[in-house]
């Protein structure tokens, strides 16, 4: 389960002058605002008309992600930054509007593993045929449809000439957002796996990526659990990794280059590095207790060591009572330095050119 604040894009599809779409979009975002606040969701509204997307004019298949035009790059950035979508669509001739199909066709990986909900409107069908039509396309793009829908019959949604859907429609919209957020969090590992910079890890299905400040909650849990053994081995609770608050963890994640090993949304291990002068400092090597003895620590250490560019030696520190760590690091070519602080020992590995 990811803890990241989700960004949900409300996509208003109709572009005709005096279209009903913007009114439906405003009703929706107003109805959802309190729930969005409670669920920690950023709700952003985008009108397809404002994107100024001509009919698809890119030469390459979108799956390649090679975009020639500024309008495509902007659209790609917007969709990449979103964790889920609510599509506000009319029904045109029993189908989705061409504007929606065109906006979907422009991109590929940007849509993958993000939840989508539909708010449709129309005459007798309340736009539901447009939704069925759109789903055939969105599922191809690996957008994941939520079950909750909002379907508005235009005549019934108007009271005294004003667009005012019934309370149950507002509730349906809230239900949709709640489901969308649950799905958005649950799909986060798949988005991660597909995301920029993720590479396969040493265990089947695992992957590695740089940790960001918003991974702070996962890192806090992992290091508190892993450093309990260090506390026992060194007979002290005065270990930063054991005591740091999530805010403190977020602060150093912004500064250090931290590699995280993940599987299905679980942080299995990590290691951090920072270059200072000719020294590559390495620290916070952690592997979840149930996965020790499988070579993951060694794998993480070797991955961290590849960041040595511009450095002539590697430096790390452990507790003087951490007998297992000391043996492990020495086996990996690190030599203990004379102790500077009581209770801690630094180990150095010189790099040969
Ligand atoms: C080109 C066109 C086709 C339409 N086809 C349908 C349709 O198949 N089913 C339906 O219920 N309403 C249909 N309508 C009526 C629309 O639901 C209604 O005009 C709605 O306001 C359109 O959304 P918009 O104002 O945001 O463009 C159609 C309207 C247009 C302009």
UniProtKB/TrEMBL annotation:
PROSITE patterns linked to this entry: GNAT
Superkingdom assignment: Bacteria
CDD domains: NAT_SF
Coiled coil: none
GO cellular component: cytosol
Classification via InterPro entries: Acyl_CoA_acyltransferase, Flavoprotein-like_sf, FMN_Rdtase-like_dom, GNAT_dom, NAD(P)H-dep_reductase
Regions that span the bilayer: none
One GO MF term: FMN binding
Ranges of residues in domain N-acetyltransferase: 206-352
Name of the protein described by the UniProt record: FMN reductase
